[in-house]
């Protein structure tokens, strides 16, 4: 395990690798495949837990006790029969945070109860989500803060699913999801095969593991606009867009006005990111932006400003 700290400017810094002997028989529990954390606000003792998924289908809860360190608090099978746990991510739900486990083509949501303190059973999932797409998911994540419980049962958490293709699946997860939930997934073109996603979908790993995609403008309503980040050259990478370049071809011209009109009136694709089409900077993308672009291109009007 490599601890990571963050500077005042948000820059991450990797610390010295630390080895933990959990005392578990790998022949029984398997080898670790993924890891997630709940910060402690979920539990009465306010102490964080780490959850480790394994290739033999186990989810192992590690309790971080002040002054002692990590101990194995519990271990349970995610599914029966057991299948490898491919990914673990928190899923905000109504009044609690689910431990989300990606197994095969389903995301299982567990409400983990601290042993000996009652609460829902952790050996059975509270719900599981099925992706209707034919491909097998390889990674998933949710939008927004991972440690904020949803306060109302009529809300939903946004889920984004990677499956190794050029399409990300976007779907809402009901705050009070129970039993089987078939995801109403929309497909979002990202232009690069994505294997895994993390941290609110800002970081994505290409299927061939050749690069990390960084997407600061990713949102449920505007979709993806990733760019490759070189993490070895020590130079900052800029992931931006050209204001007014709604169609993403690298220049602002009449084609962008046509693109906006097609989006507004004909249900065409949205500008990526959506803000690139807000040429008149009023916080919305509508016919006024198309008129603004025509005035700029043909009549020497003011340049696109964008928010």
For the sheet with most strands, the description reads: 5 strands, mixed
In terms of per-residue confidence, which ranges show pLDDT below 50 for 5 or more consecutive residues?
none
Helicity range of the residues? under 10%
Count of distinct structural domains: 2
Number-wise, the strands total: 19
Element string (H = helix, E = strand): EEHEEEEEEEEEEEEEEEEEHH
List key phrases describing it.
3 helices; 307 residues; Type 1 dockerin domain
Model description:
The chain is mainly beta and 307 residues long. It folds into two domains: 226 residues, no CATH class; 67 residues, Type 1 dockerin domain (Orthogonal Bundle), CATH 1.10.1330.10. Strands 7-8-9-10-14 form a five-stranded mixed β-sheet, with no helix packed on it. Helix 2 packs antiparallel against helix 3. The chain is elongated, with a radius of gyration of 22 Å. The relative contact order is 0.08.
What is the gist of this entry?
With about 300 residues, this protein is mostly beta strands. It is built from three helices and 19 strands.
Write the layout of secondary structure elements.
Elements: E1 4-6, E2 12-14, H1 26-29, E3 32-38, E4 49-54, E5 58-65, E6 69-77, E7 87-93, E8 96-103, E9 106-110, E10 127-130, E11 139-142, E12 156-162, E13 167-174, E14 179-182, E15 186-189, E16 194-198, E17 203-206, E18 212-214, E19 227-229, H2 254-266, H3 287-299
Parallel strand pairs: 10-14
Antiparallel strand pairs: 1-2, 3-4, 4-5, 5-6, 7-8, 8-9, 9-10, 11-12, 12-13, 13-15, 16-17, 17-18, 18-19
Helix pairs in contact: 2-3
């Amino acid at each position: 395990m490599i601890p990571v700290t963050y500077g005042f400017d948000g820059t991450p810094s990797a610390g010295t690798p630390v080895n933990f002997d959990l005392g578990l028989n790998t022949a029984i529990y398997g080898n670790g495949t993924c890891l997630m954390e709940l910060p402690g606000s979920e539990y009465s003792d306010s102490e964080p837990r780490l959850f480790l998924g394994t290739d033999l289908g186990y989810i192992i809860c590690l309790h971080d006790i002040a002054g002692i360190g990590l101990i194995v608090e519990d271990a349970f099978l995610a599914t029966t029969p057991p299948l490898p746990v491919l990914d673990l991510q928190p899923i905000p739900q109504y009044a609690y945070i689910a431990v989300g486990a990606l197994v095969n083509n389903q995301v299982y949501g567990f409400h983990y109860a601290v042993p000996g303190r009652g609460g829902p059973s952790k050996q059975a999932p509270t719900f599981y989500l099925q992706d209707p797409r034919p491909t097998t998911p390889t990674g998933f994540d949710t939008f927004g803060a991972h440690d904020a419980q949803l306060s109302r049962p009529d809300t939903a958490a946004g889920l984004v699913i990677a499956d190794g293709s050029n399409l990300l699946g976007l779907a809402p997860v009901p705050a009070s999801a129970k039993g089987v939930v078939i995801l109403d997934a929309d497909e979002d073109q990202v232009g690069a095969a994505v294997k895994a996603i993390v941290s609110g979908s800002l970081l994505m790993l290409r299927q061939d593991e050749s690069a990390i995609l960084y997407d600061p403008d990713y949102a449920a309503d505007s979709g993806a606009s990733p760019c490759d980040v070189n993490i070895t050259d020590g130079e900052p990478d800029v992931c931006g867009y050209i204001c007014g370049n709604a169609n993403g071809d690298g220049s602002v011209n009449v084609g962008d006005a046509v693109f906006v009109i097609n989006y507004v009136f004909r249900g065409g694709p949205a500008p990526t990111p959506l803000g690139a089409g807000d040429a008149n900077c009023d916080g919305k993308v509508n016919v006024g932006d198309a008129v603004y672009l025509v005035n700029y291109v043909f009549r020497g009007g003011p340049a696109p400003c964008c928010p």
